[in-house]
UniProtKB/TrEMBL annotation:
Domain Ras-GAP: 131-339
GO molecular function: GTPase activator activity
Gene Ontology cellular-component annotations: cell cortex
SUPFAM superfamilies membership: GTPase activation domain, GAP (SSF48350), RGC domain-like (SSF143885)
This protein's name: Ras-GAP domain-containing protein
UniProt organism field: Exaiptasia diaphana
Gene Ontology biological-process entries: negative regulation of Ras protein signal transduction
Length: 713
């Protein structure tokens, strides 16, 4: 027995070690995914703002400050009551999907990212934890149901750029989805990209231009028919169609054989789309439903990774323009087979029509794959068990102060749309929390560890008794207990032998009984020793553990590749931000030198003392010019006693100060940032200031502010 059980114990130790490493790696992937999302958002932000900066020389210092080093500071919420209430609020949002599902329907396009980031990467940020995964899918389930209920046309379902469609796309980019893409697409993409001279273009017009160049006679328009009349074009197109079919066939085979690798959550979303579509539109065909499933799985998940592999961390280098076109054509073929009606009728692009025989031959294979994607076990019973188990755990999330405040702000903003009653837990919490705090600067925006707690006590849920007993028994039957029994057996045997020697005491009788039991067990052991079926069971158990260990090792290697890809992508994004910072320093120095030569205007009086130049205006002058368009608290007779000064302490930032006649101290002072004005102008939002002054809309104000800014530098 010892010779057989020893490998079992050793394998158990190895299993526990791998499982521990898997848990740590999954947590690191979740954290890296969130950080990369924040870096990507910053890169997009600076892409837009630097374009504005080039045209208008705005807010240099603020942009530079926002870049930082990419690492957020960690802090705590010092107010215990406030921390507790926010913990109650986010527990409620996390476990009651109704609120967030409703919020995804009513937020504006400009607010989608503000909702998406904290939901996907903070509230449900643990991407490999079953409880959070099931809760997130519950939110998706409700949000999709609302989306289907409100949609009147089948063909427009899930087509709009709504918060829920954006969240579903972001969901596929999390760790499990990225792992699937690497397992499925990395090898065929690498094989394709290793052929830099490969050209799969089959559009006759483009093939003609590739051979002969653009026609010199522009009046003689080149059409597909004219291009196909050329023998050279016919030959190249025919060869490329065959090659394109071969490559598409390779990708199709790999995809349809990857069914078991598709993450549970993505398959469940496919199933939810199918179920809701058939409930809402019972008369639509199976092929139409499969087309909708393909619209999510292929159009939003798989094909973007094929067309832009570097953005999905599947390749380290950007594909050439020719290779991007090759990948686009492959994605087009795959996408077409998701819609059987198009394949059996006519392709949208005429030049794709020669691929119809291939598509017709394989369309049923793709349709079968899309149907099988939807066949997945429901999670609701598992969620009930996870909820029970969570009662004994300390649940917490990692979230930034700005994310907390933004969710709080959105809930207050759309409180009426959520139709909360006064006894609704969310209504109670929002009433106690009061107004949300303003968004903080990047330096002030700390990441906090927020413990979540249920203020209204445990939810009453039906727990399956058999599942509960099974779970509890597995907890009790731990390897630690078994190991302790093995270690104490020799000591107990020796104690029983010593007690047997004292026949006249009660202990002697107990020892005799125990020794009898032990000998019975020993006799049973001798019987088992000659029982081949018993050892066969032991061997099978060891083999199962070996297989389990190999499976976990493969998963560990796969996740390590995912983490390395995420880490490399994050480093690349950080390098982009560092490049922006260097660029901003150069542009700022150039703008400062240019501003010194601006001509003076007659609008306002200037002082030429050392330091920042100060422009002085009368209140009446600014009101007449349209800089001030409304006053709330300033009496009409006092306006003539007010003067206004404008100075620029740094490029792109302007300080406006109001003085009353005869007083040395200022009555009001504020800073205007031209970058913020441009952003609000872009969003068509009005701008107002405090203390009774309202500034005009940025479209008007910007021209005046720019004229003033030229004189302040």
């Amino acid at each position: 027995m010892a010779a057989v059980s020893a490998p079992d114990i050793q394998q158990g130790d190895k299993l526990r070690s791998i499982q521990k490493r898997l848990k740590i790696l999954k947590q690191e992937i979740s954290e890296r995914s969130k950080k990369n999302y924040e870096l990507e958002k910053d890169v997009r932000f600076f892409d837009q703002r630097i374009a504005l900066l080039i045209n208008h020389r705005i807010a240099f210092e603020e942009l530079s400050d926002r870049l930082g080093d990419g690492d957020r500071r960690v802090g705590v919420i010092k107010d215990e009551l406030k921390r507790q209430r926010y913990g109650n609020l986010f527990y409620l949002l996390q476990t009651e999907p109704y609120y967030l599902a409703q919020l995804t329907r009513i937020v504006s396009l400009n607010e989608i990212d503000s909702l998406l980031q904290p939901v996907m990467f903070s509230l449900y940020g643990n991407q490999y934890e079953a409880r959070e995964e099931y809760l997130l899918l519950s939110m998706f389930e409700l949000a999709l149901k609302y989306e289907f209920d409100e949609c009147e046309n089948f063909n427009s379902l899930l087509r709009a750029n709504t918060a829920i469609s954006r969240m579903m796309t972001t969901y596929t980019r999390r760790g499990p989805g990225q792992e699937y893409l690497k397992l499925t697409l990395e090898e065929p993409l690498h094989e394709l990209l290793s052929q830099p001279d490969l050209i799969l273009e089959i559009n006759p017009i483009k093939v003609y231009i590739e051979i002969y160049g653009h026609p010199q006679d522009e009046s003689n328009q080149l059409t597909i028919e004219k291009a196909m009349d050329d023998p050279e074009v016919q030959l190249k197109t025919r060869i490329r169609i065959k090659k394109l079919v071969d490559v598409a066939s390779l990708f199709l085979g790999i995809i349809v054989s990857s069914l078991d690798k598709v993450p549970y959550g993505i398959r469940w979303l496919c199933g939810a789309i199918k179920t809701l579509a058939m409930e809402k539109y019972p008369d639509v065909s199976v092929e139409q439903v499969s087309s909708m499933v393909g619209g999510f799985f292929l159009l939003r998940f798989l094909n973007p990774a094929i067309v832009t592999p570097s953005a999905h961390m599947l390749t380290s280098k950007q594909p050439s323009q020719t290779m991007r076109r090759n990948l686009t054509l492959i994605a087009k073929i795959l996408q077409s087979m998701a819609n059987k009606n198009i394949v059996t009728s006519h392709f949208k692009e005429e030049y794709m029509q020669p691929l119809q025989p291939f598509a017709l031959e394989h369309v049923d294979l793709m349709q079968s794959f899309l149907r099988d994607l939807c066949s997945v076990q429901d999670f609701h019973e598992s969620l009930e068990m996870e909820h029970y188990l969570s009662l004994s755990k300390n649940i917490s999330i990692s979230i930034t102060l700005n994310e907390m405040n933004k969710i709080h702000e959105l809930l207050l903003q759309y409180k009426d749309d959520l139709a909360l009653t006064e006894d609704d837990p969310l209504f109670v919490l929002l009433d106690e929390l009061g107004q949300a705090e303003l968004q903080m600067s990047c330096l002030e925006d700390l990441t906090v560890h927020l413990p979540l707690s249920n203020r209204w006590g445990p939810k009453k849920q039906v727990i399956r008794t058999d599942s509960l007993e099974s779970t509890i028994s597995k907890k009790i039957e731990s390897e630690a207990v078994k190991e302790q029994c093995r270690n104490t057996e020799p000591t107990l045997y020796s104690a029983v032998q010593r007690a047997q020697k004292d026949k006249n005491t009660e202990w002697g009788g107990i020892a005799d009984y125990l020794m009898h039991i032990f000998q019975s067990v020993d006799e049973f052991h001798n019987v088992l020793y000659h029982d081949d079926s018993f050892y066969q069971e032991i061997r099978q158990e060891v083999q199962l553990k070996l297989m389990k260990c190999e499976k976990f090792e493969m998963e560990l290697q796969s996740l390590q590749r995912v983490y390395e890809a995420l880490d490399n992508h994050g480093n690349f994004l950080q390098e982009q931000l560092n490049a922006y910072k260097e660029y901003l320093v150069v542009v700022r120095s150039r703008a400062a030198s240019v501003s010194k030569v601006q001509k003076r205007s007659s609008f306002g009086l200037s002082s030429s003392q050392s330091g920042p130049k100060v422009l002085k205006f009368t209140y009446t002058q600014l009101e007449r010019e349209g800089v001030i368009i409304e006053t709330n608290d300033i009496p009409e007779k006092k306006k003539s006693d007010i003067s206004v000064t404008v100075s620029s302490p740094e490029p792109g930032v302007y300080t406006i100060t109001l003085y009353y006649k005869g007083e040395t101290s200022n009555a009001y002072e504020t800073d205007l940032n031209l970058e913020e004005l441009l952003e609000k102008q872009h969003l068509s939002e009005p701008i107002s200031s405090s203390s009774g002054l309202n500034l005009p809309k940025p479209k008007v104000n910007f021209k005046l502010a720019r004229e003033i800014s030229h004189k302040c530098n």
